[in-house]
Amino acid sequence: MKTTDDLMDELSLDVSDESALDKYLEKVSGYGDVSKTTFAEYYGKLLKERGLSSGDIEKQTGLEHSFCNKMINGKTSVSRNNMLALSIAAGLTLDEVEECLMLTNNGALYPKDSRDSVIIYSINRKLTLTETNDLLFSKNMELLGQVKK
């Protein structure tokens, strides 16, 4: 599967007329229309693919049961911190994390930001949420899944 950057390059460089646009749209239709997908649907599909339950995610994140379920089921908004905690707890890839951030209207991970760089590093190395928070703690950075006081 092509990355979003690959598709952006293709759309920008190779799609030069309406005929090429039609071919491009036909090709990307296989990726699903993101605008019609909700976070709950997308995240639920990823959990199912990995054989995980909301209880598994709840245990890893330490988030309160009903609050965790409300986030996973799309019944409440999800903060960026909690979205990252949910994503890392589920072992999502960087592309999947970025998709979850987009679907919840949270900002993308930014490699020029030190904290985001640590999070990207953790995701790419498939660190657990505990390992990621340990690394963030060692760098004196805000932990994931924690509420600011």
Give the tags.
60% helix; 149 residues; globular; mainly alpha
Short structural description:
With 149 residues, this protein is mainly alpha-helical.
Topology of helices and strands:
Elements: H1 4-13, H2 18-28, H3 39-50, H4 54-61, H5 65-72, H6 80-89, H7 94-103, H8 114-124, H9 129-138
Helix pairs in contact: 4-5, 6-7, 8-9
Please characterize this protein's 3D structure.
This protein has 149 residues and is mainly α. Helix content is 60%, strand content 0%. The protein contains nine helices and no strands. The protein has helices at residues 4-13, 18-28, 39-50, 54-61, 65-72, 80-89, 94-103, 114-124, 129-138. Helix 6 runs antiparallel to helix 7.
What is the averaged pLDDT score? 87
DSSP E strands, number? 0
Helix content bin:
55-70%
Tally of alpha and pi helices:
9
